[in-house]
Amino acid sequence: MGGIGSGNHWQHSKTTTDSIKAIDIRYMRKHGLLKPINKGSLSWNCNGEAMGYIDYQCFEDHLELNYRYRINGGDWQPMKQKIQLDETHCHYGGKRYWFRCSHCNRRVALLYCDGALFLCRHCYDLTYFSRQQSPMSRAIEQKHKLGQRIFEHYEYGEGWGKRKGMHWATFYRLLRRYDRLETEWHDQMNRYFERH
């Protein structure tokens, strides 16, 4: 009864990284939130509606989170979590900052909350949404994203006009990739109709 692209790959679906709350150290660094003794709040929105927040305080070598959580609709419980910070030096100067997962000590840029604690995606066994998609759905979504990036005008799967500010060499390189995705999508469509 499913439509094009449906199939048994959904039967074993895992929780995806984009369906739960996450903290991104790159976002915090870009917005100056990682300065020692800095305090503030991080919040999540869905369709413009607030979906939750946490308070944080940043120290020299760690981040302290204060928030409330509940499991399966139970009572709200207070939680305080300490997350170690780490840094690596980049080849061309500067530093890259990381969280250390509280459970496995892995160095990561993102931590997710799928329970009481913010941990890395490996500890929660999370997957990316794109890995849950059929090859056909993945190809068309990548084609649309690339089309919106390289074309000045992109509607209904068709694009025209190089985006302003993009170098011609970059445009032609990405256009070749766009054409490959278009071909891949057509091949997947043909295979689908051959099977059904």
Explained architecture:
- The protein has four helices and eleven strands; from the N terminus they run βαββββββββααββα.
- The protein has 196 residues and is α+β, with helices and mostly antiparallel strands.
- It has two domains: 17-119, no CATH class; 133-195, no CATH class.
- A hairpin with a 4-residue loop joins β8 and β9 (118-119).
- The longest helix has 28 residues, at 168-195.
- Residues 1-12 have low confidence and may be disordered.
List its traits:
single chain, 196 residues, alpha+beta, 6-stranded antiparallel sheet, 3-stranded antiparallel sheet
H and E order: EHEEEEEEEEHHEEH
State the end-to-end CA separation. Answer: 12 Å
Helical segment count: 4
**Mean pLDDT value:** 79
Radius of gyration from CA coordinates: 21 Å
Number of domains: 2
Characterize the largest beta sheet: strand count, sense, and whether it forms a barrel. 6 strands, antiparallel
- Uncertain regions: pLDDT < 50 for 5+ in a row? 1-12
The side-by-side strand order for the widest beta sheet comes to: 2-3-4-5-6-7
Question: Globular, elongated, flat, extended or rod-shaped: what is the shape?
Answer: extended
Please indicate the percent range of residues in DSSP E strands (runs of 2 or more).
Answer: 25-35%
Structural class, judged by helices and strands?
alpha+beta
Percentage of residues assigned to helices: 25-40%
Total beta strand runs: 11
